[in-house]
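Shift notes (night). Ran LRRNT domain-containing protein while the centrifuge was going.
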Amino acid sequence: MFVFWVFMSCSFHTTDAIDLKNANLTEVPRDISNDTTHVYLSYNNISIIRDDALSYLPSLHRLDVSRNRIKTIEDHAFRSTKLVELIIHYNKLKLFPNLSDIGETVKTVYFNGNPLKFLRNKQIEHLAALEHLYISNTKITELDFVSTGYLAPESLE
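Came back to this:
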């Protein structure tokens, strides 16, 4: 169930999904209903996702923050969520974020189009549930995890 909102206030009603695309947001809203499972924040002006920015959303399974201006995702930005799908493509991230707080749940990460230069085994080895990692259109020149068996080459795109 998708609900499209005209951004008129800072309070939202209970729903499964919140769509705040193109809402001219500069940060992740703090007043989304805590039973929301899908949050769409693409095409905004968010530059940082701070620690615990989403911790009040324990049912969050899908987050789309694509096509913002994100340069930093703090280490515990996703703490207390149950993210299965994280869409952070086409931002300004030079480092792969610490996803240890969602390592047991995240299955798919879209990281395409970020200026990432390397991705190392230690950055993904704690992602036990990871099935798909999309890293095309990056500046990656070094991958050291494909041969270790943490992620099969066919899982990369």
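Confidence is low (pLDDT under 50) at residues 1-14. Residues 121 and 145 are 5 Å apart (CA to CA).
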